[in-house]
Amino acid sequence: MSQVTAVAPNQTLARVLTFLTIGVLAASMSSILIRFAQNDGLPSIFIAAGRLTVAALLLTPAALSRYRADLTRLSKRDLLMAGASGFMLAIHFATWISSLEYTSVLISVVFVTTGPLWVALLEFTFLRVRIRQIVIAGLVIAVSGGILIGVTGSGASTAGQQPVLGGALALCGAMAFAVYLVIGRRLRAKLNLVPYIWLVYSFTAAFLVALVIATATPITGYPASGNFWVLMLALLPQLVGHTSFNYALRYLSATFVSIASQLEPIGSAIVAFIVFQEIPTEWQLLGSIAILIGVGLASYGQGKE
Questions:
Q1: What is the pTM of this model?
Q2: Secondary structure (DSSP) of the chain
């Protein structure tokens, strides 16, 4: 596996790895910040809508001032594709954030990071891309880990006591994220990073705000600390984490970045253990490790020539 492009000197490599490490740490804080916001009484749908709305607003000046020409050249088909991507991303955030109400941080984050498995299955089903044996092996191992978690009952102390429901919601989030990636791949090739994520985030925010309105979810009356956690979600996991991963992709292979991102559940679980005293059962821990191994194998298999 080629991990680093030949043109990256040692100094550049050190900087890129630093950014990638920051991205992993920022992403690892996502579930923790969500749990803080939920503990302050903020509904999951409101958290999702606030996170994406703030992120889109923060990106708006740069997107419109520097990339207006690129955006105006997009066709109606491109905009429909961006809308479809945003819709799937909205489902991803709505279901995954909701999953943290019902299960532990570890189970939720492990399940939602199974995206590479579903991308491989989608490409096989709709694009007729051959699935390599190592990807199949990763899928089998990950599914086995998921079954192990599902059949061993409730788990981590102080966490939600419906791990099957929470895991199912996180799994829906992972599948939705995979569809988002597959749909948006062609559009991403036409746009730079900033206008692409601004466009998709804006659509995502619009769908989530519509869901907030449709469900009559209150938008005021929450403590300042809860709104602060939503702001931190937009700044750290959404903007810093996402941007760092995409920056690293310029110098490192997609396989390396994908596998590195699998460190997120580990970081999240450690922080959840320290902050929330969430202690997974032995079977849940074993199942989570199996899922991470399976996803790592699938990521590696997809990156091989």
A1: 0.86
A2: ---B-TT--HHHHHHHHHHHHHHHHHHHTHHHHHHHHHHTT--HHHHHHHHHHHHHHHHHHHHHHHSHHHHHT--HHHHHHHHHHHHHHHHHHHHHHHHTTTS-HHHHHHHHTTHHHHHHHHHHHHS-PPPPHHHHHHHHHHHHHHHHHHHT---STTS-S-HHHHHHHHHHHHHHHHHHHHHHHHHHTTS-HHHHHHHHHHHHHHHHHHHHHHTT---S---HHHHHHHHHHIIIIIIIIHHHHHHHTTTB-HHHHHHHHTTHHHHHHHHHHHHH-----HHHHHHHHHHHHHHHHHHHHHH--
